[in-house]
Design goal:
alpha/beta, disordered N terminus, 30 helices, about 725 residues, two-stranded antiparallel ribbon, 7-stranded mixed sheet, elongated
Length: about 725
């Protein structure tokens, strides 16, 4: 009779495995949409959990721990696995472990499994990729494997769902087993070194309930395990000194012993192998990871993704904007004239539009990147570019984020979650906004004409070259800033590119769609709340002013319109411009004018700097409103109007080459995007980093603008 567990116990089952073992596919198959994403305590690494219904009415919590290769970590993700499993009583300490291993690479995946066996936690071995193994003619004697390895073993497939029903029943049996607790010294899977045995006897009194292997891991990782008290650290340090415990030497000793033990078991249990898939992968890698052709293929793929973000997203983004525009018109026509109506239409609905409009780009980017990840290509991309990216303090996977930033920094920053090293991920997040995104294009288009004449050098326009130069300038700034952060930021985390190049396989579309859903949901409900709040604040600042100021501005505008015989549209444009000047935003523009005067900016440009914080492309709309051409959509008219603007005192052109170049450089470097700041806050789980990012980018923008203005003035 099968044991039945009470649902009230709410047991925890940890899903553990190497990166690229297919662990995420199994997790998605078992939990579907019944999963949530949080964070491990004190860090910003994602913690995925899901609810699992087991036979007999048991409800269990399934914890998807980060991928790890062993209990000797090289990244923060792997450290979290060690931290969660080496301390009984940790909030993530499981009642049972399901270890996922790629059956086509079983020998490579069993090191961590053999270490898990020594924790005293009930564990079973799930051999994933059963469908691939069948295609390749790869067969194992599961009974022999189970007997020799000392753990229940079964075949599963994260792609087809094969074996998952049996896996759930085996989980029930596994949960019925009692954990080992205090175990004898000879309970470890490998033969203890004399130093290890002595150390265990000296410290086990301080750590009741720990297995011998957990005590060994405490000694190996004493420097960074956060839960150890000063007294416990002292006890361990004294034992290390007394026994001559050599950290690195004993790690090698243990690892070699474990391989010597399980490698013959795997070879004996394997009935037949096939090299067909490996040879195909190797032939494809000869092209895709080639020193010269590999980068060409990569940038070609990234160009396709970049193109898709512009072309595929254009239709749904236009639809979203048109839908919210129609909703705004409907509300304005059917609700009473009141400031609350304006708040709803111009603040809340517009703010929501500013959130939802990014969803197509985010969905497309993560759909395409997930496809490449699923087929096994992204690991190759990281491998190819890791060395050069390491020089700048980045990671091979940073290339994807930097290139994606050319479309929009928001999904690009979200894509950095594939970077396991926290320092490298943080640097990538901080420098990605330097890459010129699509929102800068309207600003560049309007201002370049004031700096560069429309002449050609051969077949190439100087203005086109200037446009490209602005993009290259952003790339250079990103790399140089990354190099600076590499020197400034300190971390105990050592960076290694330790990854396994998976076999090329068809993508599991269930995983792709779940990834897209997760990213879209995260942006909409997490970053979206911040964007909406900032949108409302900006609307309030632009719509209200000191007592009586707005009303006086409207009266002055109407009298001026009557004297000039302006039509209704032109009159409204003039009123909008005067109200903008009298508003708190206008007052703030005038307040900051002394600070931006050295850059060649007046208070009107100051307003544009403030309002375009909502989105850089708002700069053009703000200029249109300020210069009373808000109902003319032709950018040429905007440029013509701006080209005629003169300083009321000096009578010199406002948009001289010096001022225009200064403004261009400001928009190249400045963090003029509240949505990006909101996403940075969401990804770093702190206001510290977005504020630092805003500060150094604004400082660089100010300095470069000032130098350019002084040079050309």
């Amino acid at each position: 009779m099968k044991p039945v567990l009470s649902p009230a116990l709410e047991p925890k089952i940890a899903l553990i495995g190497n990166p690229n073992s297919g662990k995420t596919s199994i997790f998605n198959q078992l939990t579907g949409l019944q999963q949530k994403v949080g964070n491990f305590p004190g860090v910003t690494v994602d913690k995925k959990t899901g609810t699992l219904e087991l036979p007999g009415g048991t409800r269990a919590e399934l914890i998807d721990l980060p991928g790890a290769y062993s209990f000797y970590p090289t990244s923060k993700d792997e450290k979290l696995v060690v931290q969660s499993l080496v301390q009984p009583g940790n909030e993530n300490y499981p009642d049972a472990i399901v270890y996922i291993a790629d059956v086509t690479k079983l020998e490579k995946h069993l090191l961590l499994f053999s270490q898990l066996k020594d924790l005293g936690i009930p564990v079973l071995l799930a051999l994933n990729m059963a469908d691939v193994a069948e295609q390749e003619g790869l067969q194992y004697d599961l009974e022999k494997l189970s007997r020799k390895l000392g753990a229940p073993t079964l075949l599963v497939s994260g792609r087809t769902g094969e074996g998952l029903g049996q896996l759930k029943q085996m989980m029930v049996d596994l949960l019925a087993q009692a954990p080992a607790g205090n175990a004898p010294l000879d309970s470890t899977q490998y033969r203890l070194a004399p130093e290890e045995a002595k150390l265990i006897t000296q410290i086990q009194g301080e750590f009741p309930g720990y297995t011998p292997y957990q005590l060994i891991l405490l000694a190996h990782h004493i420097k960074w395990l956060p839960f150890l008290t000063p007294a416990q650290k002292t006890t361990i340090e004294q034992a290390i000194n007394n026994t001559g415990f050599q950290d690195l030497q004993l790690q090698v000793y243990e690892t070699m012993q474990r391989y010597d033990q399980f490698t013959p078991i795997v070879q004996q249990a394997r009935d037949r192998d096939s090299a067909q898939s490996a040879s195909f992968t190797e032939r494809l890698d000869d092209l895709l990871t080639n020193r010269f052709l590999g980068p060409v293929v990569f940038f070609g793929l990234m160009l396709m993704i970049f193109h898709a973000l512009f072309t595929w997203a254009e239709l749904p983004m236009n639809f979203i904007e048109d839908t919210f525009g129609s909703l705004n018109t409907f509300l304005q026509n059917n609700l009473p004239k009141h400031w609350l109506t304006d708040l709803l239409t111009e603040g809340i609905v517009t703010g929501l539009s500013g959130v939802v409009v990014f969803v197509p780009q985010i969905a497309i980017l993560f759909f395409l990147i997930s496809l490449l990840e699923e087929v096994g290509y992204m690991a190759r991309a990281a491998f190819m570019f890791d060395r050069i990216m390491q020089f700048f303090g980045l990671n091979g996977r940073s290339v994807v984020a930097l290139i994606s930033g050319g479309a929009c920094a928001i999904p690009a920053i979200m894509s950095t979650r594939t970077i396991s090293n926290w320092k490298e991920r943080l640097i990538t997040i901080l420098v990605t906004p330097f890459i010129s995104c699509s929102a800068r294009i309207p600003v560049y288009t309007v201002l370049i004409g004031f700096v560069v004449p429309p002449t050609k050098v051969g077949f190439v326009s100087l203005q086109a070259l200037a446009f490209m130069g602005l993009y290259l300038l952003g790339i250079a700034a990103a790399l140089l800033a990354a190099l600076v952060f590499k020197l400034i930021l300190r971390t105990n985390e050592t960076s290694y590119l330790m990854l396994e190049l998976p076999e090329y396989r068809l993508p599991v579309m269930r995983n792709v769609w779940l990834t897209v859903w997760e990213k879209v949901k995260t942006f909409t409900f997490e970053a979206g709340r911040i964007i909406l709040i900032i949108s409302m604040v900006l609307w309030l600042m632009s719509s209200f002013g000191p007592p009586g100021a707005i009303k006086r501005a409207e009266e002055v505008a109407r009298r001026s319109a009557q004297l000039k015989n302006l039509d209704e549209t032109a009159t409204q444009d003039l009123i909008d411009a005067q109200v903008m000047e009298a508003s708190f935003a206008g007052q703030l523009g005038k307040f900051i004018e002394p600070a931006i005067r050295p850059l060649g900016f007046d208070w009107k440009i100051g307003i544009a700097l403030i309002t375009s914080f909502a989105a850089r492309e708002v700069f053009v709309a703000t200029m249109a409103t300020i210069y009373s051409i808000g109902h003319q959509d032709d950018e040429y008219s905007i440029r013509e109007k701006m080209a005629k603007q003169r300083d009321p005192i000096t009578k010199e052109l406002i948009y001289s080459p010096a001022t225009s170049l200064s403004l261009l450089l400001f928009y190249v470097f400045a963090m003029q995007c509240m949505s990006t700041i909101a996403v940075v806050k969401r990804e770093t789980k702190s206001w510290k980093w977005p504020l630092i990012q805003f500060g150094f980018m604004t400082g660089l923008a100010y300095l470069s603008s000032w130098l350019a203005y002084m040079w050309l003035s």
